[in-house]
Amino acid sequence: MDRHETMRPTFPTRRVILGAGVIGAAVGIASYRPISDPSWKLDLRTSPWRPRDSAGLVVQDQRLWLIGGTLADNKSSLLDCWSSPDGLDWSRETDQASWNPTIQAMTASFAGRLWRMGGFFPQSQTLVASAEVWASRDGRDWQWVSEQAPWTQRGGGTLIGYDGKLWLLGGSRHPRGGATLNDVWCTEDGSSWTQVLHSAPWRPRAFHSAVVHDGQLWVIGGGEWGRNAVFYSDVWSTSNGFDWRMRTEKASWAGRHWAKSVSYKDLLWTMGGLTAPREGAVNDVWYSGDGQRWYRYLPQKTWSPRMAHCAVVFDDRVLVLGGSDDDCLNDVWTLGLDNSWFGPKLPSRLWSAIRSM
User: Fold this and answer.
1) In angstroms, how far is CA 190 from the centroid of its own chain?
2) Stretch 34-54: mean pLDDT, rounded?
């Protein structure tokens, strides 16, 4: 080459450019830390009601209703009922309700009444499943609707109002597992029941959650308890209780018992629970628009790990209260999101997907 000839610059090949871009993107995603989501707020550190887990929490007549629950020994059932207009000021409606002292009972609000049914009660040093049905209009006077409903005695199922009916979904015939159910029942009055399905397409389970979201009824997680415990992370939905659609067989979150799920801000949320037999509870919170793709909610401040807690949407906020880990709790936490929160941006979606692998 003539030394007077102008040297032409060399440019990287397309392959080199593409490779550098992929590496840069990977490094960016790996080092990315998303902006925190809005924090949970501790409204009450200590409520007037006793610490408990496995309580019922429902909304009726513009009030919150806390129904029963279990003490830290996992055997003693509480017979009280409390109500509150805001989650801060609580009134004790009764401390000796008429129902039998069952644990892992199922509760709901439906047709202007509070409902409590099923559960396990102590008998001769063991726990026996129940099929009793109780109801109340004011939380003080409870009526015995049925001593023996037509469905199999059980506890740990879910009870929820949907499409003008009260629905019973799954559960277990014994609290220590090995006898889980996947049947579907409904009623309009609590006394006359219709079996919609003897065996739903979702696997038999207990300690799952159910929620009404986007005009459909959803079943989320749960599993089987006992020596060979199983923890599910599948998500199912139905519009009629008969035809079920699996949204995902394995969600981004770990399979779990005793989690809680709500519908809030047009999203499906699931939170907390127990993910392994000999490990403590968790406090992760996940949300989804379709039940298939899930993203982790990442606040700076949140509630302590817990399972068998209560969660409900009330006054445009999510309330989480009670539950247990090593000990039972009686705190109250709230989360309120305004229109400035839009869920995950693209980097957050990628980061959440990588962290969930």
Assistant:
1) 24
2) 94
